[in-house]
Amino acid sequence: MPFGCFALLAQSGNFVIYRLMRGLKHHGVEGQAVYAFHEYATGSHRVFFDVCLPEGAPPARFHEHMRELPGPEGTVVPVVYDSRKPRRAKTGVRKDLDFDKERPVVLLVGGTGLVLLGIGALLCLVDAAI
C-alpha cells in the first residue's frame, strides 16, 4: 500500500500538467496575454501574465516558470487559454501544445500506483478478516 501511495504521489505533477494540456487541446482558444511581473524562484523566474479577454469578462492571471523573461513588463505574448477557465493558460500557439511526454508517465506510474494501492487495500482486508 505505501508503494502505491508513493507511485501516485510521484506522478502527480505530471498528471496536473497532462490535465492542463489536454484541456487546452480540447477547449483552448488562442489569444494574447500581457506580461505583468515576475518573481525569482530558484534558477528560474515565475512569470505572471494577464490574459486579454473580451470586455465584461473577469480578469484572469496565470503564471509560468521560465528561464528567461519574455521582455520588459507590458510585453504582449501569444497564449492559449481554456475558454471555460481563462486562468488555465499556456504561452505559445495551439499547434505547439504537446502533452505526449506526460501521457505515458501518467498511465504507467499512475496505473501501477492504483494497482499497488488496490492490492495493498485487499491484503489489509484479508488480513483483518483472518
From TrEMBL:
<keyword id="KW-1133">Transmembrane helix</keyword>
<keyword id="KW-0472">Membrane</keyword>
<protein>
    <recommendedName>
        <fullName>DUF3592 domain-containing protein</fullName>
    </recommendedName>
</protein>
<feature type="transmembrane region" description="Helical">
    <location>
        <begin position="105"/>
        <end position="126"/>
    </location>
</feature>
<keyword id="KW-0812">Transmembrane</keyword>
